Amino acid sequence: MATTKIRKTPGIQNGAACIGRTQIPVWELIALSLQGCSDSVLLSDYPQLTRDDLKAARNYYAQNPDEIDAVIAAEQPG
């Protein structure tokens, strides 16, 4: 089983933390989870992700809540 890496790449998703081999930002997965989206729905909507990727996103959020919460707040409409 490969270890999921979270990467920040300038010019990709505005430098936001993403699941390493994708351009899917951690904040997006966390925001959807906080809105009640289940793992099974996330995995269906993002078929390139694995359960390990979702776990890595949650671990990153646990270690960097202020960063992720700030991006989520900035992305909210209004």
From TrEMBL:
Protein name: DUF433 domain-containing protein
Signal peptide residues on this chain, from the entry's feature table: none
InterPro entries, per the entry: DUF433, Homeodomain-like_sf, WH-like_DNA-bd_sf
Species the sequence originates in: Pegethrix bostrychoides GSE-TBD4-15B
